Structure formats: structure tokens, C-alpha cells
Amino acid sequence: MPSTIRPSWQKRDSGLVARMILSFAILSLLYIIFLSVLAYLGLGFVPITIIASAMILAQWYFSDKIVLWSSGAKLVTRDQFPELHDLVERIVARNNLPKPKIAVINTRMPNAFATGKGPKSSIVAVTTGLMDTLDTEELEGVIAHELTHIRNRDVLVITLASLFSTVAWYLMQFGFYGGLYSGGMGYGGGNRNNSGGSMIIIIAVAMLTWVISFLIIRAISRYREYAADRGSAQMTGKPIKLANALMKITGTIKNIPTRDLRQEEGLNAFFIIPALSGSTVGNLFSTHPPIQKRVEKLMEMEASMS
Amino acid sequence: MNLFRILRKKGNYRTNEHRIDSDALFSLSSAHITLETKLNLRSTGKAAIGLKSVSGRLFAETIEEIKHFLDVSKTDSDLSYKVIKDSYGYLWIILQCGKIEDIISGMSAVGQIVHNRDFSKQLFAALFQFSNDNNRKNNQYLVYNFALNKFYPFVPVNKNERDNEIEREIMETIVDEMPFEKDVSLWYPIWDPIL
After folding, report:
1. Lower CB density within 10 Å: C or N end of chain B?
2. Could you tell me the CA-to-CA distances from A286 to A7, A10, A218 in Å, in that order?
3. Domains (ranges, CATH) in chain A?
4. Distance CA B3, CA A199 (A)
5. What is the CATH number that goes with domain B17-186?
6. What is the per-residue pLDDT across B6-37, written as a single tens digit (0 to 9) for each?
7. Which residues of A are marked as active site?
8. How many CB atoms lie within 10 A of CB B56?
9. Cα–Cα distance for residue pair A189/B13, rounded to 1 Å
């Protein structure tokens, strides 16, 4: 599971995130279909659990390749992007970190993500749009943010957290198919009503677990974003640069007007109510905290440093 | 931003009579020390107060009273002034003095005269010029908007370009010391150098 720097609800970012979510959704669907077929064929609970675990491990093992493939990111050599390599090397050298592989996505949307199983085999990907939009110091801030995700093993943390919900999902499936095919598995007979009742309870509990873990994962993920911002600030010593980068990426930096106050005066009489931003329900479901909050925290760090 | 805050903000706009708020202006007398110690920004000793000029004898008399007041106070301090009209038709009273405290009290008095003459609605904005020693050319400003009753930074770099980074830095440095406009979308610049 990759961690992108942009909030997933950002409209302009929808392409990349949608592509990744779709890839993982298709994968999950394939698993479920495959496991359901196995269950239908009458395989017992234990062998199916072993196969499912093997598949999860395989997904973990190939996660970087899957992410690269689904995002369209290409690994790049020093010859192709010497400045980008220099920039990453500067940060890792200063902070005593192993150098990650570097990938570039050819899209105008400014974005970046980190993925990988551990600090030694990780990948940092940036889009060409990000490199065009940001200046060197801002790009450093963003890459340091991604490197903090790697250092904190956030990919592992989120994967483990997701495992919880995945297990809940499988239990839900087994509750469903277990009940449906109980005849085929040799538990049929007179107590059909009874097993139907317990099946509903199993599904309900599994669903509840799944929903709760889904929300918890998002809360953890949001917390880790703040942690990555903090780590980036420590690595570069310039939280304001990351704040600027975030604002540039989301386009909020354009909020500071350039129209003269004297031109604007006449319009002030018709003071416009600003659009309501980000409902609380949206915040609950999003994996990233609102940019405004992140910028505020970075600015506090900047203020405490001066 | 919740609805309550929006309504309150809107309310501020409605009820504010552009009265000169001396407390807000005088908060600058401590904030400018913070700017100097933390950002090495010093007052250049120049400031201006802008008025939307209107035709008529009463307004002209108000300007005369201001001039008279400033002429008199010249004897107490080295506060000098001039009055100019910009291309938008706004009237600017430019104050110059070595001590920012004298500028602030001068400006506060000017505001009081305008208010007493019932022209507070004509009060537009005040500008305070700052500079850091390294770069005398690049002046930075604090704008005081009478409608908002708040300060905000303005750092022009080129023609029609402003340095948002330094502006945010200025805000972070003094935001707790003075009434500061936190909504950056209201930080309207005042271009062409009046000072």
C-alpha cells in the first residue's frame, strides 16, 4: 500500500490514486473469487487459510512491483535524472539513511509516494509535474517526507493494520460461504436454522470489525502523515519549505491575492462567504489530514525554530 | 471554517465603521521589536495612511486640520509628512520619522481627526515600511486594513509579484502580538510604491 503525499480526495489527484485503488480492488476481488472457488470445491478451513496467507505474503513480497505497475512509475537511473538522484543522495547522506530506488511518473499532476518492504528495498516515486512545480528546497521537503515514511516503516505498519481488516473480510466471506455450502461440507441436516442464525452473527461481527479497522487504519494513516511532516522538518531543517510545497501542490498558495486592494475595495461591500471546506465526515474517511492543518503544524515548527 | 465564524466575520464587515482602533495600531509598537529581533526587519521610518477622498468642503477642511496638526507636532518630534494623491484617486498622508512610536501616535491622531469629522468610512489602509539591513532595496510592508481592523504583510519582489514565503514568515512571527488577518485570501496588496 503506497502512501501518497496528496490527500486522496483531492480532485486533481484522482487519476493516480484511483488507478492504485482500482488495482488493489481488482486484486482483492481475484483473491475472494479464488478462495470462494476453493471453498466451493469443498476445501477445508485450514488449507484455505494457508493459501490465503500465502497470497497475502506474496502480495507483500511483490507490493513494490504492484505499486510501480499500477502507478505507471518507472525506475530511473542517475544518467536519466542526475539532479533528482543528487537531491535524494544529499538528504540520505545527511540523515544516515540507505538510498532508496528512485522512480518517476510522467504526469503533470504534482505528487509523490514511497513504497517498499523495508528501508533497504524501498522506492521513492515523484511525478514530473512535482519536479516542475516545486523548487529544489521544496522538493527536498517532499522527498524527506517520503523518506520518513520509509524510515518509520509506514508501509509495513499500514499493511499490518490492513491485515486485520483483511482477516475480518475473510471471516465475513467464510461466514457467508460456510453457511451457504455447509451442506457440501458435511455439516448439513436438521440444524439448518441454527447455523443460519450463527452465520448472520458471524457476518455482522466481521463486518463491524472490518468497518472499525477501516476507520482505525485511516486514523493511523493520518497520524503517520503528521509524523512524516515532522520527520521531513527535522531532516531538512526547513518546515516552511514543505508547507510551501503542500500549498503549491494543492494550489492553495494562490490564495494570496495579487489584485490591488484599491481595485478590490468596491467588491468588499459584497463580501462573499467562502465555500465550506472539508466536512467532518470526509475527514473521518480520508487517509490524509487536511492540508490546512498540516501547513499550520509545519508553520508552528518553523516559528519555534526561529 | 464553521458557519458561525463565517457569519461573525461577515458581521464584522457590516458593523465595522472603519473607526481607527488605537489598540490595534499601538500593538505595532511592540510587534516591530519582535520583527527586528527575529527577522532582522527594521522600520524604515516611513509609513502612510490612505483615505478615499471625496469632494466637498468638509473633507478638504479635514485634510487641512490634519496638516495643521502635523505641522504643530513637528515641533515635538522629527515627524515630517507629505500628502499625495495616487492614480486610483486615493489620498495618502505619508509620515516619516526616526521613531516608529511617533509614527504610530501621529497616525492614531490622524485617524482620530478623521473620525471626529465623521469621515471614518473614508479611512482605507495604512502602510508601514520595513527593510532588512542586507537588502535595502527590497522593502517589506505591514498593511493595516481599516475595514478588517487587522494587519497583514505585503512583500513585493518584482512588478506584480510578491514573496508569499516571507509574508507567511512575518505572520508566524507576530501573529500573536497584534490583530492579524489569518485569512490569506484577504491579503490584498497595495502596488505602486507610495512610500
Report:
1. N
2. 7, 10, 6
3. 3-184+192-241 (3.30.2010.10)
4. 46
5. 3.30.70
6. 444 443 443 445 556 778 889 999 999 999 99
7. 146
8. 9
9. 76
Domain positions in chain B: 17-186
Q: Find the closest chain A residue to B35 by CA distance.
A: A306
**Cβ count near A222 (within 10 Å):** 20
Is the alpha carbon torsion for B172, B177, B183, B188 positive or negative?
A: negative
Nearest CA in chain A to B189: A260
Note whether A256 contacts B169, CB cutoff 8 Å: no
Q: Is A304 exposed, middle or buried (0-12, 13-18, 19+ CB in 10 A)?
A: exposed
Q: How far is A297 from chain B (nearest CA, A)?
A: 11
Amino acid at residue number A294:
R
* Structure confidence by residue, pLDDT tens digits, B142-186: 999 988 889 999 999 887 888 888 998 899 899 999 999 888 878
- B185/A274 CB distance under 8 A: yes
Give the best residue of A262, A272, A297 to mutate against chain B (max B CB count within 10 A).
A262
Question: Are A109 and A12 contacting, i.e. CB atoms less than 8 angstroms apart?
Answer: yes
Q: Which residues in chain A have their CB less than 8 angstroms from residue B189's CB?
A: 257-261
Tell me whether 0.85 is exceeded by the ipTM.
no
The alpha carbon of residue B187 is apart from the nearest alpha carbon of chain A, in Å, by: 6
Contacts of B124 in chain A (CB under 8 A): 261-262, 265
The grid cell for A107 is 504526469
Whether B33 has its CB under 8 Å from any CB of chain A: the answer is: no
C-alpha cell at A229: 511532516
